Amino acid sequence: MRRLLKSIWRVITAPVRLVTWPYRRLRDFINYEPEDTDTAEVFSRAFQEPAVLLDHLEALRKHLFRSIIALAITTGVSFIFAPRILDFLARPIGGLEALQAIEVTESVGAFMRISLLTGFAIALPYIGFELFAFINPGLKRGERVLVVVALPIAFLLFLTGIAFTYFVLLEPALNFLLHFMGINTIPRPSNYVRFVTSLMLWIGLAFEFPLVIYVLAGLGVVRAGSLARGWRYAIVVIAIIAAAATPTVDPVNMSLVMAPMIVLYFVSVVLAAIAQAGRRRRAARTAASEAAS
Question: pLDDT by residue (tens digit) across 18-29?
Answer without folding.
Answer: 656 554 555 555
